[in-house]
């Protein structure tokens, strides 16, 4: 085993960042390597990978190196992402000045020191007031307007970009996504002639399902131009243009209520903690008395208090700029404070872990096509993000919940006993 040159420096840096030896094999651009039997291999392709880490110590530097292709992983990506959980304490991933001074000699000898490399073009740089209409449109465009062809490969024919609902361990992703769409419609109690508002309607899959299967009229709103364009085409192709309207519109701009039911699936994460009360109040105002709201959102644990996104995190810079996750109690609280009655809560955490793993398989099976449909960096962002998300759901770091609420007044159509939502019909 060779263990000199760049690989030795990588191990020293890793030990400093992690507080423990790196439990991965390492192979560097100069041919040096260190081997850990049975472990995935961290491939450091050039000096620029380490230079990124020197100038942005921690998660941001690692993210830039991976997205740019300067850093790679060979072998089981899930295992490579899992090892920090097995360390005595979760590392802070920070290099202090004293450590950098100590390593200055090796860094100089290997030609690592130099000006900071430009960030990959996939990195978001938003401007303006947080969660203003203009900035939110930019944030949503960064995530969703990356190419409908890319999302077709990633999500499959359903084009549903939220947690699926697996009827059993052998169910396909498509079966599970159809089951989730039907679950939402049943919880909302949709009946022919009703009017449904789909907030954050994506590529129109829920609107299509509700109109075709439940004979309702649907208004779907999104602030992604790419989503709106494809959703309208899908609806026209299905012959449902007379029952489904897709608008390029923020939910705050909807003014033609009331609606008999409102679905918000995978959208509340974009709202921001400070805006959640206004979000809940707006949906309450748009809902008819007796109408139902289903709020489906990812949630994090309550221990750390309100989320304040780290501007230097991988998720903030590359995946969901300005996205904020809140505890389940926060979602329930703001709905109740807005005057809604919460009548049912269901956790889908295990289902989202399965969903993310299925999306990673889709991406890996269509890798070259996905790269052509977006960019190498964008495909790497999504592979890292979804694999990490699968582990986060599996290890209880985050969850996802469907909260069903009713606006008091009007006809009370809820059954006296809790229905078995998982059963159709």
TrEMBL record:
Coiled coil, from the record: none
Pfam families documented for this protein: CMAS
Swiss-Prot/TrEMBL GO biological process terms: methylation
Record keywords, A-Z: Lipid metabolism, Methyltransferase, S-adenosyl-L-methionine, Transferase
Enzyme nomenclature, EC number: 2.1.1.-
GO MF, one annotated term: methyltransferase activity
UniProt-listed InterPro entries: CFA/CMAS, CMAS, SAM-dependent_MTases_sf
Family: Belongs to the CFA/CMAS family.
Alphabetical list of PANTHER family matching this protein: CYCLOPROPANE-FATTY-ACYL-PHOSPHOLIPID SYNTHASE
Protein name: Class I SAM-dependent methyltransferase
Taxonomic source organism: Blastococcus carthaginiensis
Lineage: Bacteria, Bacillati, Actinomycetota, Actinomycetes, Geodermatophilales
């Amino acid at each position: 085993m060779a263990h000199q040159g760049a690989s030795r420096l990588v191990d020293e840096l890793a030990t400093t960042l992690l507080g423990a030896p790196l439990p991965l094999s390492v192979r560097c651009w100069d041919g040096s390597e260190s081997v850990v039997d049975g472990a995935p291999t961290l491939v450091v392709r050039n000096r620029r990978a380490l230079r990124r880490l020197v100038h942005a110590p921690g998660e941001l530097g690692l993210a830039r190196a991976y997205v740019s292709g300067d850093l790679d992983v060979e072998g089981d990506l899930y295992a490579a992402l899992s090892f920090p959980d097995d360390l005595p304490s979760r590392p802070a991933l920070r290099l202090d000045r004293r450590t950098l001074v100590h390593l200055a000699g090796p860094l100089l000898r290997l030609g690592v020191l130099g000006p900071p490399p430009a960030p990959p073009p996939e990195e978001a740089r938003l401007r303006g007031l947080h969660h203003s209409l203009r900035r939110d449109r930019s944030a949503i465009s960064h995530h969703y307007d990356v190419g409908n062809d890319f999302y077709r490969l990633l999500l499959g024919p359903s084009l549903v970009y939220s947690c699926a609902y697996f009827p059993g361990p052998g169910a396909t992703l498509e079966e599970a996504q159809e089951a989730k769409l039907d679950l939402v419609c049943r919880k909302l109690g949709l009946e022919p002639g009703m009017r449904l508002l789909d907030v954050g309607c994506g590529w129109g899959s829920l609107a299509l399902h509700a109109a075709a299967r439940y004979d309702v009229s649907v208004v779907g709103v999104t602030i992604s131009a790419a989503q709106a364009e494809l959703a309208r085409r899908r609806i026209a192709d299905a012959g449902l243009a007379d029952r489904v309207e897709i608008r390029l519109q923020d939910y705050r701009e909807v003014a033609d209520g009331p609606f008999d039911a409102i679905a918000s699936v995978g959208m509340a994460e974009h709202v921001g903690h400070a805006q959640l009360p206004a979000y809940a109040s707006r949906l309450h105002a748009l809902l008819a008395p007796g109408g139902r709201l289903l709020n489906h959102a990812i949630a994090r644990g309550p221990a750390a208090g309100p989320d304040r996104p780290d501007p230097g995190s991988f998720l903030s810079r590359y995946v969901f700029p300005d996205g904020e996750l809140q505890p389940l109690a926060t979602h329930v609280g703001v709905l109740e404070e807005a005057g809604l009655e919460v009548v049912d809560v269901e956790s889908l955490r295990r289902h989202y872990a399965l969903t993310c793993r299925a999306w990673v398989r889709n991406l890996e099976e269509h890798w070259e096509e996905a790269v052509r449909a977006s960019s190498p960096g964008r495909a790497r962002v999504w592979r890292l993000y979804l694999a990490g998300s699968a582990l986060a759901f599996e290890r209880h770091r985050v969850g996802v919940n469907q909260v069903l609420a009713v606006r008091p007044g009007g006809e009370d159509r809820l059954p006296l006993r809790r229905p078995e939502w998982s059963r159709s019909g």
